[in-house]
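RECORD TYPE: protein structure
NAME: Circularly permuted type 2 ATP-grasp protein
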Amino acid sequence: MIDLIPKLNPNGWDEMFSNKGVRSSYRKVLQTLENLNPENLNQKQKQASDLFMNQGITFTVYSDDNQGIERIFPFDIIPRIIAQKEWLGVESGIKQRLKALNLFLEDIYNEQLIIKEGVIPAALIASCPHYIQEVHGIKVPHNIHIHIAGIDLIRGAKGEFYVLEDNLRCPSGVSYMLENREITKRIFPEMLSANQVSMVGNYPMIFHNILVSLSPRNTSNPNVVLLTPGIYNSAYYEHTFLARQMGIPLVEGRDLVVSNNKVYMKTTSGLHQVDVIYRRLDDEYLDPLVFKPDSALGVPGLISAYKQGNVALVNAVGNGVADDKAVYAYVPDMIRYYLNEEPILNNVPTYQMENKEEREMVFANMENMVIKETNGSGGYGMIMGNKASEKELKNGKVAILENPRNFIAQPIIQLSTVPCFINGELKLRHVDLRPYALCGPNGVEIVPGGLTRVALTEGSLVVNSSQGGGSKDTWIIG
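PREDICTED:
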């Protein structure tokens, strides 16, 4: 028997405990855990680590000198649980958000009515490095630009969910969500079944069906491939995992060739036409004839084939304009404009550094702000005002003044906490949640759960794996 009640989070929401005791969704889990002694739990944590090691479930962290270090993905054995009733609100909010964002992308690459009617400033879009003029006017299959999205959510102090970020280009982490569940099945099979946890394992099948549905050719068996930058990419494990799960070839740019505006895969039996490419390659590397001329990762002529409608790309080219952090601030306006609805999920308050009044207010309160680059990712280039030195804050102000369009600021929100099993005890650690939504001709499907990312360092609010974060299995029960 082990005492598993940690100190409560004094500044925010804890997922397992309230000031009245254990939340109802966690009671069965805590009961199971309390019947295990520390040695049992340590064995299960070691078993989980060994399974991750043996299956090669890794990611790559890059150091200051750009050297990649491959690491086993840290996994905490205590699940994060969300009640079904609460999840339904999250699901509705994400579906609403993605519907508006997709309409925005269709509009911004065609008639641009949202700019003409003054809802979003033209300069904001024109200055976005991920607005791709080369694909203006392209008709994508079924008018769907976003096929897979990872929407990052956090909880406020009262437990309400906020959208922190929209990942609409090449969202990563799905493999860890799926592997986390498989590991949990191995170490806590009875606990999983006793809580009637919603299934996530059908994700590859749902996604594969969507990919097939996007084929521009009228064929019963279209050729779908996953395009990877190669073994040195930080998410290469995920690329191999998803290709294997969906039963599709994993290819690099050198495996594809364009002829007569059609894409072909080189095989031992000759060239086979490719209909759909799930690309894990950023826009600027896709085609050296259009973007970076020195890119050896892409396929010369690919954008020409795309423009002709002979191949579908997932996600669509140019989606980055919709997950620019400066454009993110306008998503509630998009929902009102395109859907005539109020947002179900709110944004975190966001201040534009191009706005002089907002910039001065942020400068006066830097210690309470997080400063983000509008097109940064992975937690890089971020300044946490409450942790930064005077020099870092000063340098941040200089960088903002040099290029205010490149930065936004948000108030530091104490992320919710979830107990983690660390050194034989339950310790509270901050978490976020990345649910994965799949968008196809039949609508949006959201896998019930997603990837809970954990800031394993005590007191840290940075959950990114590249910054020392880990993950948990996420259960939807009810």
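COMMENT: Residues 84-108 form the longest helix (25 residues).
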